[in-house]
Write a structure and sequence with these properties.
By secondary structure, the protein is mainly beta.
Amino acid sequence: MTFSIIKSANNTYLKLLHGCILLIFIPLSVFADSGQLPNTDMTMLPTVVVEATKPLPESGITTLNSDDIKNLPNKNGTLTDYLKVVPGVQFSEQADTSYQAGEIEPANVSISGGRGYENNFLIDGISNSSTLDPYALKFDDTHILAGNPQDIYLSPSLIKSLTILDHNISARYGNFSGGAIEAETIDPASKPSGEISYRTTRDNWTKFYTHPDEEEDFQNADRTTRQPHFDKHNASFHLSGPINNSQGLLFAYALNYSRIPLTPFNVKEIQTRRSENYYLKHVSELSTDTTLKTSFTYAPYRAKGFLNSTMNSNFTNVSDTYALQSMLETYNKNGTFELKAAIKKNSDKREAPDHFYNWKSTYGETKDWGRLIGSSSSNEGGFGELIRTEQSINLQGHFSSNPIVSHLLETQLKSGIEYEHIQAKYNRPNTVYSYGTAKVLGAGDFCNQGDQACVSEEQYLSKRIVYPAGSSSERVNFFSGYLELHEKFYRFTIRPGLRIDYDDLMKNINPAPRLLISLDIFGDDKSTLTFGANRYYGQDLLAAKLRGAIQPTESSTRPDQLTEWSDPIKLSYTTVTKFNTLETPYSDELTFGFRQVLFSSLFTLDYIYRQNEDQLAKETNPDLNPSGDHEITLNNNGYSEYKSYRLGWKKQWGRNSLTINAAYEKVTSSNESYYDTLDDGDLEDYVYHDGELKLKTDLPREDYSRPWTANLIYVTDLPYGFSFTNTTRYQSRYRVIAKTNEPKFDTDGDLNTKDDQYFVYDEVSQQSALTFDWKISWTKALVNNHSIELNLDIFNVFNRKIPIGTEDNTYRLGRQYWAGLTYKF
């Protein structure tokens, strides 16, 4: 009943948005033709033709320009590090943990209450978001490769500007239900120039916070989840300049590298992470009105590691992304045309030992390393090679008209179409065996030649799990189109728009109306009210189809070391992944805003409400399919609700700028990702929380959910070539929702019958966090326009000890120093 009401409400909401668009289009077109305002006696003035339209107030848009990117502290040399200063953006509690300070992958972010994989990352207008398995976090899974929401880990050294869109987002943008993040890359310089940069940090420049009971275990870490020692290095280089009067060329290289020493079985092993960008860009002025930009990016990523408590388990996760992009932009009397084309290939691969062995550490001296860690087992090997590829072709066309003035109405039309073809593959090239159930061999008991699951006169493994080889591929076509008007009428600026998406995987036609209205209250461009009503559709995941390649696991046995293995039989209660068509997840949004220019500063106030429906979750069919397997599928049972109140103030004077923003956010969510199980029965589970009986799916979100966040960013240029940036970030108490061991009885009989038993969920609060991050730079000009710059970034300047997350005794990093040098020529 609840879901039918919600669905009905959403259909009504969609019809209401369409009605709003029609009510705006029709009257304004009438007024434009008649030249009269409704119910007014104003004398009409002669038409004045203007050459440019006043842009709509940038509600929901935060843009970081090249100076911002240069001045803001950046810890790990990733794009998402800059999002910490943006209101409405939250990071996972585990994003800055003391236990894994050596990692360099971009952190997941939640924008306006969305999940970490529900954002659309773009590079020069082309999507950089993964459609495969962006929330696969485990690096040691048997069947699944680790993923990330971004294909290319773009280096900040290549970013000219960064635009974050978190509400009131234009119809030009789609495939998200969180936010959109667009990076514009740097262009070739107008004269020969270059830059070399290097930054570094290490564990002895870092303060770790751990619980005293875990300090010894941490310092002698033998697993990836504990990283007491590391060193990190960011390096970049670019060289650019003109080829002739109309062409320019840029070549750039960037490296982000981490080295993590660990001591498994008291032997030093080095894990590494290596992310690189090779970037080539050509810009040609074909005429005074036409520009052609073409770029090529090669972005490899390598992560070398080993399985916890497992000998000879070294593996490498490899990710290679190639992207060729081209954009033709031309101007004429009608407006601006953009044509974009891109070819991208992403290949993820795990290189690992083919088989896994679970020996007994007490059956001899050959396989006895488990004793070093107090275990009766000695694990060895890995889970074999996995390959996942994604190839795409993207074509776009966009048109933005010049302003059209008709009496009191000024109109600008924006429209575009997009087509994308994606071909994805999943492949396990070899059958993998996991051996176990060791049995002892006595003196004179020998193994067959070549039997790797046997040690003569010690032990043999009598059972094995079989992971059969398998592959699958899928092709999908995405089609999108949008139409948007920017209309200025009297003191109103109105942006109605409609975006329609379709793909032949889920076969859903998704109309997403967008509407933004602003009122210049006094007609002086200083006081503006805004209202927005929008729908955003998320992106389908090809992982839902590709996982069908994962074959049911089997087992076989042998009675002794000399007997052949029995024919494989299917394991009891085997689960298989099946594909089913789903609705596309979407988010309905209502916003209200106010902007005030006062004393050369800008004050903003916003309210954002989102209702997210048809979110992805996992379910297991309790009935066996004809093959005798349990089926795992994705469903649309997930949903969430988001409310946010935001304040902002910004002022710039002389060589100083000050930005202050604060946000209050409340999120309830049924699940955190499509990996969470949410069967139909889960939607009716009641629990006690905060003294009330409520649906379990209405509990507050467990991550990305600090209610209050606030930022203060102060930037100043000082004498003698110095500059200073302070970013102060406040996060309120984090409430951990935890299930207790004490059930509660519904003695009042509020539900069903009396004495119904429900689980109790309590909130455990972590303390609030106030951190200061500083960046201090010194620049010295040299001869012939050369210069040198020294940088010092200090994070958590006052070394605050901040508990985080849902686990006890987990803290953020303390104070950390990064030192850098840049030479420009």
